[in-house]
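User: Fold this; tokens only.

Assistant: Input:
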Amino acid sequence: MHLSKQVSQSANIQCYEQLRDKILTGELAGGTKLVEERLAEDMGVSRTPIRESIRRLEQEGLIKNKRVVKPDDEELRHIFEVRKLLEGFSARCAAAYLDEATMARLQDCIDRAFAGTYEETMDANKSFHDLIVEASRNPEIVKIIDRMQSIVYLFRKAVVFYKRPMLIEEHQHILDAIRARDADGAEQLMKQHLQADLDFYLHLPREAKL
């Protein structure tokens, strides 16, 4: 019985990861209707792990009403209002007490993003924001932002791919404010940075969006 439960959990995890990857890579585009029977057949599993995977991806915001999410502009604005509040506060906290070692890691993220490939820039961008969110020292903030990561990843793909001007330079300005222990400045710069991300994305052609 115990072994059977482990096998079942393993199947659930594998299905979840496969389905999530299909969405994040664009193989399952926004708006695609998910049919449990067809997915189960394609993946060679029963409908149970598919159903559980869809439930988890609904919690992450990647699926809504059995379709791959395609957020409209209003929904994205709501997401970014939350990000601005929480990441702005986190930047304020970082300016108050972030240690030198973590600031060095933030600088490394910036340097890698400037010199890196598309994939390296994506990874460095995520790491920069994650480090600042962790500086809040508030597990509830970390959990809220973590639940948004999948949607933010899809959004970030477009922003990085279409080379949003000053994207990485703004990271440097935020870090400079943190180093200067300028809490007001760090918070304001983070909010402006996220708003600039959103504004850039909203003005992309329809086919370039999520």
